[in-house]
Design a protein that fits this description.
Layout: H1 2-22, H2 24-46, H3 56-63, H4 79-92, H5 95-100, H6 103-111, H7 114-147, H8 156-159, H9 172-197, H10 203-219, H11 245-269
Helix pairs in contact: 1-6, 1-7, 2-4, 2-7, 4-9, 4-10, 7-9, 7-11, 9-10, 9-11
Length: 273
């Protein structure tokens, strides 16, 4: 038991140190894109010439607005939203497969329990996605500070300027959950799905499958396609015909449970020698 615990902690430390170190160039690219994306939001809001000053939460909603439910008459594509999803997929791409053929192969012979190896990799996925969002939130908070209002409140006159938003009786807690917590949780679930798929197919195919899923999401509004929940304009809080965040949360939890179990069961039987 003690050997397993020590081996797991050593493996987790390796994943957090080596995995994050290998991702530093990728995080630099993510930061550059986020700076550009947030700057566009910044100048777009300034162009509205409102008396109200946007807060951190206002900017986050503006950043994660996405597009309304797709219709043939409206061909708007949420390019910034789609590129953020691609960047997160890029962060977790191929780490599991590459590590399995090097460091982890030696560690697995010592800790015996393959479930601990999976647990370490799954925690690495959570931390990898979390760092992306920490960078995004830090840059958004800095932009709000430049505006002069680095608070967490809501500015309704500003939000109602976003086409399609009317905030259907939503309170602060609901909006904060849909704009801040839910996108992060969705990104974790999708990244976890990609990592588990890499156990079955080539990493590039798993990456392509997730990219295809995100593209399909643009055209079909369904809680089953959980990435819909990361676009605020698809939420029932902002759009009368939108998707209830509670429904997305239900499918999100199911995705995490199914792919976690699938990864554990498959890897226990996988021949890695």
């Amino acid at each position: 038991m003690q050997n397993n615990k020590h081996g797991f902690l050593k493996l987790l430390r390796h994943d957090l140190q080596e995995g994050m170190a290998q991702n530093l160039p990728k995080y630099a690219l993510c930061t550059l894109f986020l700076v550009m994306n947030i700057s566009m939001c910044f100048f777009s809001i300034r162009g509205l010439e409102l008396a109200e000053v946007p807060t951190f939460l206002d900017l986050t909603i503006y950043l994660n607005a996405g597009v309304q439910i797709f219709s043939p008459e409206d061909n708007a594509i949420p390019v910034e939203w789609l590129f953020r999803q691609v960047l997160i997929s890029f962060l977790v791409y191929n780490y599991l497969t590459r590590d399995l053929t090097t460091y982890s192969l030696q560690t697995l012979t010592r800790i015996k329990k393959r479930s601990l190896w999976c647990a370490s990799k799954f925690l690495w996925v959570v931390c990898t996605v979390a760092l992306f969002y920490i960078i995004q939130f830090a840059l958004t908070f800095a932009a709000a500070a430049i505006f002069g209002n680095p608070s967490f409140g809501l500015t309704l006159p500003l939000l109602l300027k976003i086409p399609g938003v009317f905030l259907n009786g939503a309170d602060f807690t609901q909006v904060a959950f849909a704009a801040v917590v839910l996108p992060f949780a969705i990104s974790v679930a999708v990244a976890l799905m990609q990592v588990v798929l890499e156990l079955f197919i080539k990493p590039i195919l798993a990456f392509a499958a997730v990219a295809a899923l995100n593209i399909i999401t643009i055209y079909y509004a369904s809680p089953f396609l959980i990435s819909n929940g990361s676009m605020f304009l698809r939420s029932s809080l902002a759009n009368a015909d939108g998707i209830n965040p509670a429904a997305v949360t239900g499918f999100l939890c199911a995705y995490i449970a199914i792919f976690t179990a699938l990864g554990l069961v498959y890897f226990r039987r996988k021949d890695i020698l």
